[in-house]
Design goal:
alpha/beta; Rossmann fold; 11 helices; 7 strands; about 20% strand
Length: about 230
Amino acid sequence: MPKPTQSYALIDIDNTLFPYFVMERMMQHLLKVGILGVNAYDQCLALLAAYKAGQIEYIKMGNAVMSLIAMSLGGQFQKTVTSTCLKFAYEEIRNTRPVFKGFVPAALNHNIKTILVTSEPQPMASAFARALGAHSAIGSEMSIDSKGRYAGEILTLIAPEDKGIAVRRALPAETSRIVMGFGDEITDLSILEPAKHAFAICPKPELRVIAKECGWTILDADATPGDLAFAFTS
């Protein structure tokens, strides 16, 4: 007897779920509470500035920032980091794009589970998923020692362009169906292409072109939850 199929919606976090690079705000919070060091914070900001100025590719910037954060978390207890990330996430979740307001419960009403997919650290991704009420999150894993402390190394790095690979590892292909995918740039193609309904949210120019060619739905800043309604029933 075949197993029942579960439907999923995949949502990128930075510049998709949120209208900005939320990782930058998270780093400010970690600096404030003393988890992220000043030197690491300054280096992360420099990398972000270089990316925004077009001086470095998103992929290289993301990987470098991840390494700096992993080293900064070294020696911190997992419970402490989780608690700190949750506090920030519950405060920040009010700033999600209007189009996602009420999305998770609406999706559940149609038996669709929501998964946040990102290259960001897993504790941060999981905190946003919990605050949003999503099913789960897939992010970069940090190594943890026998005492429950972060070891300062990346265990599994999810490169921005490899989000789809991480999803395939996490979900059984024979019983999983990707019905909706949301992203803002070409590094999100791997979660958009397998989706029955792909949504380019305020997309960067390159993704906007691809979305038009593929016939995907393009939603800009004025989009509302009603613009997603058709995907729940078709």
